[in-house]
Amino acid sequence: MDLIFNCPKCEQELAVDSSGAGSEIRCPSCNEVITIPPAEAVGAPAGVEGGPGGDRIEAHPINAISSSAAAKVEMHLKVPVHHTPTASLIEKALVPLEVAAKESDRKMRVKTIKHTDCIEVGHDKFDEVVSNFLIKVGESNVISMTALTYTHLDIGTQKLLTDFGVMIVYRG
Prior knowledge:
Elements: E1 2-6, E2 13-17, E3 24-26, E4 33-35, E5 57-59, H1 97-103, E6 108-114, E7 119-120, E8 123-124, H2 126-137, E9 142-154, E10 159-171
Antiparallel strand pairs: 1-2, 1-5, 3-4, 6-10, 7-8, 9-10
């Protein structure tokens, strides 16, 4: 429970925790050193003289949250204002291929690039061929790219071999 009493010099009402009874503090109003009245004097009725100095002592339960220093701090908060357009945090799903084809004035096309077609004189040029094609088509025109696995008959060995490629769907 808190002790509520008045400063003997300036009559400023003060509230302190009852554990501080008997200790000396400075009055925040007049800066006078005063002694906190003893906790036994708390039982005196309101307005009754509680001690030799004529201090008025009252016992009041105080809401700790409303009397805290944090409750008395004035906050001046501002809502942030952005001058740039807002960015979407959730990306929209890509449209299906049929819808993409209908929305475009250009026709939808498919290009399949097989790995075996990109080997020249023992040099693998698959990545270079795919990159050059994508640059030629343009990133905004590419609708989808799909990796492929296929088998083919090797002419020299007469065996079925498994290889890879890529299928690119684009507007052209």
